[in-house]
Amino acid sequence: MTKIVRAGAYLVDLPVETVRTDAVQAFVKQETIFVELLTDDGLAGTGYSYTIGTGGRAVLSMLRDHLLPLLEGRDARDVEALWRELYASTRATAVGAITSLALAAVDTALWDLRCLRAGEPLWRLAGGFRQAVPVYDTEGGWLHLPLDDLVRGALAAQEAGLGGVKLKIGKPRIEEDVERVAAVRAAVGPGLDIMVDANQSMTYAEARRRAHALEPYQVYFFEEPLPADDVQGHRELARSTTIPVAVGESMYSVGQFRDYLARGAAAVVQADVARVGGITPWLKVAHLAEAFNVPVCPHFLMELHVSLVAAVPAGAYVEHIPQLRAITRSELPIEDGHAIAPDVPGLGIDWDRDAMDGLRVL
């Protein structure tokens, strides 16, 4: 038996590496919630999840008060059973962001243990489809950036061999969004994918209007045009435009993805491993997307998502937003426009424990 003998959680606050703004918010800080599990065979697994400024303490309380006490004495190999039992113990708060984020921190630690015990990297143990995956950049596309900076960022990404760039949209006037996308397309030509992201800021009518205005610029996908709970609106928008509609970063259960896919409301799935509850449900979403012949381009967390995108056939892109450099000793390698999934046992994230301790707040 590989019994869990100790389960702990703590909170680390990471300052943002650069100013990040979109149509509805600014990235204030990354509240990073860590879970560490020790087993009686001497292994230690580390998992994590995050918020972008609020709720981290609530996630930590959920872990400490309710979830972690259920783990001690349990067999760490029973990942599916433990996820289901922890979920069942929190039915009064599920489906919901706090519960899913807490479950994700535990589940990623369990997967770290599973991979360490097997002596395999996450990308192989979770599926092993390929090791290198395409990358697109978001850091050069924030909404506050002036037009010249957008163009420079896109050209830099293209020169570095990346496959695409994401531009935030949602300016007060449609002409501003069109001008920005048009300028980037003119600069990079047809050989670079351009994604746009409205961050749930629009009504159906406005999203339809802007989608039609952006169609001439060969947009790769239109991300979160409407509030995440508006399945019908996304379905109607998807039927009205040639631009693929992308959703998923603000969904917290496998069932929400099922509803979107079954109704033809999602052409790209952006499941976030922290927000959907961990690696265990993330893989279910990825295989569900594959069954619908829909690509998976997860949101944020590139250091973890690179291994998951590499693991599954539906994985299409990893989003480039560096945010863990303050607490890791190495960076995600990118070669010829592809991120390379770590080939060491475990999650493959090279944590700097001293730096983590220095930024720990609880």
If you had to describe this structure to a student in words, what would you say it looks like?
- Helix content is 38%, strand content 18%.
- With 362 residues, it is α/β, with parallel strands linked by helices.
- Helix 8 links the parallel strand 7 and strand 8.
- Helix 9 runs parallel beside helix 10.
- The longest helix is centred in the first third of the chain and has 22 residues.
N-to-C order of helices and strands:
EEEHHHHEHEHEHEHEHEHHEEEH
The Rg value, from CA coordinates, equals 20 Å
What percent strand?
A: 15-25%
User: Which secondary-structure class do the elements indicate?
Assistant: alpha/beta
Number of strands: 12
Shape call: globular
Distance between the termini: 32 Å
Overall helicity: 25-40%
Helical segment count = 12
The parts where pLDDT drops under 50 for at least 5 residues are none
Largest sheet entry: 9 strands, mixed
- Average residue pLDDT: 97
Summarize this structure as a short list of keywords or feature phrases:
single chain; 362 residues; alpha/beta; nine-stranded mixed sheet; three-stranded antiparallel sheet; 12 helices; globular
